[in-house]
Please model this.
Amino acid sequence: MARKVPEKWQSSVKAVKAVQVAFDMDEKIQLAIRTEALQAGLSPSDQIRSILGLSTNKRPKRPRLTVSLGPEDYQVLAEKYQLEPQQQLEIKRKLMDELINHVANKSE
Model:
C-alpha cells in the first residue's frame, strides 16, 4: 500500500526522485567549468545544466562557503584561537576573520 506524502513535503518529491550524476574528467575541464560558473555567479551544478541546455534554479542562492568540521577540527581550532572546543560560534567568528584577513593580505 502506497503511503501519501504529507502536504508540506510535496515540493520535495521531485528532488527526492532526482539522481545525482558525477563526472570523472580531466582536471583542466573541471577547473574550466568551475571558473565559468564562478564568473557567471552560478554553482558548478547550475553551470553544467546551462551548458547542457537544461533549466536552472531561477532563485538566487545565498552566496556562502562551507567547510565540514569534526570534533578533532574544533579541538585544533580551539587551541589555535585559545578557546574551548564547545565555543563553536566564537570559533566560527575567528575562522571568518582569518579568511577575510587571508584574502585582504593576498590582494595587497
